[in-house]
Amino acid sequence: MPCSCGDNKMEKYLAPLNEIFEKYTKDEKYLIPILQDAQDEYGYLPEEVLKEIACKLDLSLSQVFGVVTFYSQFHLEPRGENIIRVCTGTACHVRGGAEVLDQLKQELNIDSGETTEDLEFTLETVACIGACGLAPVIMINDDTYGRMNSQKVPEVLANYQK
Amino acid sequence: MKDTIYRSHVLICTGTGCVSSGAKNIKHELQDELADNDLKNEIKIVETGCHGFCEKGPIMVVYPEGVFYCQVKEEDVSEIVEEHLLKGRIVERLLFKEPMTEESIPSYEDIDFYKKQHRIALANCGKINPESINEYIANGGYEAAGKALTQMTPEEIIKEVKEAGLRGRGGGGFPTGLKWQFAFDNNSDKKYVICNADEGDPGAFMDRSVLEGDPHRIIEGMLINAYAIGADEGYVYVRAEYPLAIDRLQKAIDAAEDLGLLGEDIFGSGFNFNLHIKKGAGAFVCGEETALMASIEGKRGMPNPRPPYPAEKGLWGKPTNINNVETLANIPYIINEGSEVFSSIGTENSKGTKVFALTGKIKNTGLVEVPMGTTLQEVVYDIGGGLTDDKDFKAIQTGGPSGGCIPEDYLALPIDYDSLIEVGAMMGSGGMVVMDDSTCMVDVARFFLSFTQSESCGKCTPCREGTKRMLEILNRICDGEGKDGDIRLLEQLGEHIKDTALCGLGQTAPNPVLSTLQYFRNEYEAHIYDNKCPAGVCEELAASFTINIDSCIGCGQCVKVCPVDAISKGDGKYYIIDEEVCISCGACAKKCPVDAIFQG
Q1: pLDDT tens per residue across span B489-517
Q2: To 5 degrees, how large is the angle CA B336–CA B338–CA B339?
Q3: d(CA B242, CA B247)
Q4: A131, B204, B262, B253 alpha-carbon torsion, rounded to 10°
Q5: Which helix (H) or strand (E) holds A20?
Q6: A147 contacts in B (CB within 8 Å)?
Q7: CB of B451 within 8 Å of any CB in chain A?
Q8: Residues of A with CB under 8 A from a CB of B
C-alpha cells in the first residue's frame, strides 16, 4: 500500500501522527498504543489515519480495521468534545442508573452511543467505572460524579455547556 | 534528604471515590487554612489511596490520634483546623456514626466496618501516600523483594507460595504456587510475567483501589514472581477506564527504576527486570488470560483454546505467568511473614483473606478484606451495617457476571472458593451486590446476561449464539410475553453453553440465570404464568399504583409529577389514580411526602 506522502495538505494533516510514530518502534505490539494516541490527537480514527498507521507498521488495513472495531474504546466517527459515560454496572443498576441515563438522553436529545449535532457531547454507557460505593455514577471526560440522580443531571451538564 | 518532623499528619483520601466527592477541594482549603494559621511546618497533609469506605467520602484521618472524619465538606475544614489541630478538640459532628447504634466513633480502628476486617492486600491503602516510594519502604516495602532476591532461590520462593496455599484472586482460584511451578519448569531464553488488572466485572473495584492506593506492592509482587520463574520482562494490563490507577502506577514504576528496584542487577543479585504498563482498550473478554495476551501483542483480544497454557506458550509464544492484582498483593506478605502465618488464616482449602466490593442496597458500601471463611451474615450485617432503609434482605450476588445469587437461607455460609461454588455462585473477582425485595431477580439475571452477551467476542458459537438466545427469552419474560417451556429452555441452553464455550466468559455466562432459577424460580413463574413482576420492576408487568385515601393529605404533588395525567382530585380532599391510565412509573410514590401511595 502506498503511503499518502507527497500531498501537501495531507502531510500537514498527518504531521501530528508522525510525531506519535517517533515514540514507538515499528512493531505490531505498538498498534493499540498508537491507535490510542492517534485517537487522543484526532478525537476519532479517520480512514486516512488508519491507512497511514497500517502503512507505517507494515500491516494490512483490514488487520488495523479489525483491531479498531474489536475494542469499544476506538471510534470511526467524530465524537463530541465532552464524553459522558454513564455507568450501568451492577451497583449503579440496582441504585437507579437507568433513570440517570434516561434523563441525560432527554436533556441532550440523543440516544446512548450518539453525539449531539453541535459535537459538544457524546453519550455512552460503560459496564463499570469501579466507583460502586458512589452509585449511580457518571463520568464526564475524566471527572467522576457520584451519587447521581435525575434531578442533578442539568446542574452537572451545565458545567460543560457553552 | 532531611524531612521535617511534624506534630500531626492529616491524611486525605484521594482515591477515585473521594475525589469525585470533592477531596481535592478539601485539600486546597486545608492548605490555605494551614498557611493562614501558620501551621505549615507543624502539620503535614498526606494524600492517600482508598480507605475502602467510599460511601462516607471524602474521608480524612488525623494522626497520631487516628481520628476518622467522614463526609467532610470544604466549609468544615476551618472548623477542623481551629478545633482539632489548634485546640485538640475532636469535631464530634464529623465523626462516623454506627448505623445500628447511632453512636459516634472517633477512632479508625473502632468502627465496625474496619474492626472486623483483616487487611493484607489492602494493608497500606489509605495509610501511605501512594506516590511516595519512601513511605512504602518505610512501611516495610521492598523488604520481601530484597529477601527473595538475595537470600532465596527461585525453588524456595515457589515452595513458600505453594505452602501458603494462596489461590488466584481473579476468580478461578487456581493455586498460585503451582502456576509459578509450571512457568518455572518450562525452560526458555525469554519468559514474561503479567499482572492482570483488567478488572472488568461490574461491581468490583478492589484492583483499582490497590493500584491507586499501594502501587508499589504490585511492583514488588511482580518482581518476586519474575525472579521465581526466571522472567526478565513484565506487563501490567490495566483497563483504560482507570486513568488515576495508570497514572499512579507509572509514577511508581519510574520511582522504582530511579532507586534501582527495577532495571539491571537489582539488589546486586545480577537479576534484571523491566516492567511496562499496557493500557486496555475496552473489551471485557481481555480479562481472560489468552485474550489478554493477544491484546498485548496488538491483536484483537480473542481467547485461544487451552492447552497450551500460558506457562508453556504464552506471550509471543514464550512461557508466561499471569496473576491478578490482588494475588500479587499477597506475595510480599507471604515472603515476609512466611507461609505458616499466611496459611493459618482462612479455611482448609482457601487460605488468607479476600477483598470484597460490597455494594448495592447496603448501608456501608465499600471495600472489605476479611479472612476466608467469614460468613455472609458477618459481611452484610456486622461490616455492612445491614440494608439501606432496614429493608428485608433478599439475595446477595457474588462473582459478577460469572457468579450467582445467594438467597437468605445461606446467610450463615462461610465464604470460600468451594462453598460458593456449592451453592451455585462463585468467588469471581469478589463483587458482592446486596439486593432487597425491590429487586426483580429475573431483571438481575437479564442485566448480567445482557452484559456478557454484549461482551462476547463472537469467536465460539455457544457463547455468541447461545447467550443471545437466552437473552431473547429473558427479554420476552420481562416484557410479559413469557411462554410455558421458557424456563426449561433457559436451563437447557445454560447447561450447554457451560459445557461447550471456549473460554471462561462463555462457560460462566449462564450462571446468573441458572442460580436465580434455582432459588427464585417462583419469580420467573410469576412473570410467565401470572403476568406479574413481584418486585414491581418490569414495567410491562408492574401493578398500577393506588393512593391510600386515609393517609393522603391532598398536597397535590403527585399530580405534578405524573407523566400521563393519571391522577385527579377525588370526592374529598384526597387524590385518586386512574388504573387504566397509570403506567406504573412510580414517580408519584417517590414524590409523596406522607408515603400514601403504594403499588398493587
Answers
A1: 999 999 999 999 999 999 999 999 999 99
A2: 140
A3: 9
A4: -10
A5: helix A8-22
A6: 21
A7: yes
A8: 27-33, 35-36, 66-67, 70-74, 85, 88-91, 93-95, 126-135, 137, 142-147
User: Residue range B409-436: average pLDDT?
Assistant: 92
The DSSP bridge partners found for residue B195 are B236, B323
The predicted pLDDT at position A5 comes to 53
Locate the DSSP E strands across B64-138: 67-69, 96-97, 104-105
Q: Where are the alpha helices (DSSP H) in B37-87?
A: 77-79, 87
Specify the pLDDT at position B579.
81
Domains of chain A: 8-70 (1.10.10), 82-158 (3.40.30.10)
Residue of A nearest to B363 (CA): A133
Q: Show the cell assigned to A140.
A: 464526564
Residues in A touching B284 (Cβ below 8 Å): 127
Q: What ipTM was assigned to the predicted interfaces of this complex?
A: 0.85
Residue (of B521, B534, B368) closest to B436 by Cα position: B534
Residue B506 at interface with chain A, using a CB cutoff of 8 Å:
no
Of residues B118 and A131, more confidence is placed in B118
Residues ≥6 apart with Cβ < 8 Å to B41: B4, B6
For chain B, percent of residues with pLDDT exceeding 90: 73
Using the beta-carbon criterion (under 8 Å), do B53 and A133 form an inter-chain contact? yes
Distance of CA A106 to the CA centre of its chain: 21
Whether residue A128 and residue B54 make contact (CB cut-off 8 A), yes or no, is: no
Q: How many angstroms separate the CA atoms of B477 and B175, rounded? A: 40
Taking only the tens place, the pLDDT of each residue in A127-150 is: 777 788 788 999 998 788 988 999
Residue with cell 507498521: A57
- B151 CB neighbour count, 10 Å cutoff: 11
